[in-house]
TrEMBL record:
<dbReference type="InterPro" id="IPR003808">
    <property type="entry name" value="Fe-S_metab-assoc_dom"/>
</dbReference>
<protein>
    <recommendedName>
        <fullName>Fe-S metabolism associated domain-containing protein</fullName>
    </recommendedName>
</protein>
<feature type="domain" description="Fe-S metabolism associated">
    <location>
        <begin position="59"/>
        <end position="181"/>
    </location>
</feature>
<dbReference type="Pfam" id="PF02657">
    <property type="entry name" value="SufE"/>
</dbReference>
<comment type="similarity">
    <text>Belongs to the SufE family.</text>
</comment>
């Protein structure tokens, strides 16, 4: 399986994305450090890698002012999702509550890190899956469990308050819930 960094390298010449900053380019400012210290702590802190990826993902989608641009970005990410084995398209791996067919496979590696694979019969849902796999693959199970569904609010790709937008929000939440349930079961 190619890593997100490798995938980005392969596609970066044709697609410019702030989701994947160049390595070692993040320089925290003094004001950011002060804001972080003064910020109220209302829930456990996500692991730094998951929090960083979530922040980048949110910045990616909020920077796109038009809903169609967010959908196009998801379609691009769908194209990056690695192939999924037909043998894994079984009812036990099916994500419940989604309008489309979505499958998630979760395992824990020898370092006790979560490993995820996912697929869907919908290109937009594949884009959701790629984002969540990119964000959570390789994370500690505890970090997977700390992601709150509200953390995904800034990654809005709905096209207004339609049934489709509600369905897309459910896909995000249902795939996240499935990943978290697997992490809890593997702990």
């Amino acid at each position: 399986m190619l890593s997100p960094t490798t995938l980005f390298t392969l596609s970066s010449s044709s697609f410019n994305s702030p989701l994947f900053p160049k390595p070692n380019t993040f320089t925290p400012s003094k004001s950011n450090a002060i804001n972080a210290i003064n910020a109220p702590c209302t829930k456990p802190k996500l692991g730094s890698n998951v929090a960083h990826k979530l922040s980048n993902l949110a910045a990616e989608f909020t920077s796109l002012s038009q809903p169609i641009d967010r959908v196009k970005r998801l379609l691009h990410y769908a194209s990056l999702l690695p192939p999924f084995l037909d043998a894994d398209r079984v009812p036990a791996n099916r994500v419940g509550g989604c309008a489309t067919q979505v499958w998630v496979v979760a395992e824990m590696d020898e370092r006790r890190r979560m490993r995820f694979r996912a697929d869907s019969d919908s290109e937009i849902s594949k884009g959701f899956c790629w984002c969540l796999v990119w964000m959570l693959d390789g994370a500690k199970p505890e970090d997977v469990l700390m992601v709150d569904r509200d953390d995904l609010a800034d990654i809005n790709v709905g096209l207004g308050m339609s049934l489709k937008a509600h369905s897309r929000t459910n896909t995000w939440h249902n795939v996240l819930f499935t990943m978290q349930t697997a992490a809890k079961d593997l702990l």
